[in-house]
């Protein structure tokens, strides 16, 4: 797991910059790595969301997958109905700490061309998702 940046600040510190925790959305639907691409797309459609938080068997966040990425995989010539989320190499994503400043997270997202970034605690539990404004 790769954190974008972790900064620990005392609770009494004056907040000049907002943190990811101040601006993140709820994690939303969480799915497991062994879910197929087709089922993940159905979950996404039912939840009316553009992304899903992907978790391992222990419930720890391993990444985030978008509708655009799943659609590309489903529509590819080598696609089968057996492709699982764990088979998609780029499902594993960088993560943000809730204490990362929003500016730092947005800069990292733009550099990596990410539309959304999972926010996780020290144990790897998904706390939320930071999405770039379009």
Automatic annotation (TrEMBL):
<keyword id="KW-0129">CBS domain</keyword>
<protein>
    <submittedName>
        <fullName>CBS domain containing protein</fullName>
    </submittedName>
</protein>
<dbReference type="InterPro" id="IPR046342">
    <property type="entry name" value="CBS_dom_sf"/>
</dbReference>
<feature type="domain" description="CBS">
    <location>
        <begin position="24"/>
        <end position="82"/>
    </location>
</feature>
<dbReference type="InterPro" id="IPR000644">
    <property type="entry name" value="CBS_dom"/>
</dbReference>
<dbReference type="InterPro" id="IPR051257">
    <property type="entry name" value="Diverse_CBS-Domain"/>
</dbReference>
<dbReference type="Pfam" id="PF00571">
    <property type="entry name" value="CBS"/>
</dbReference>
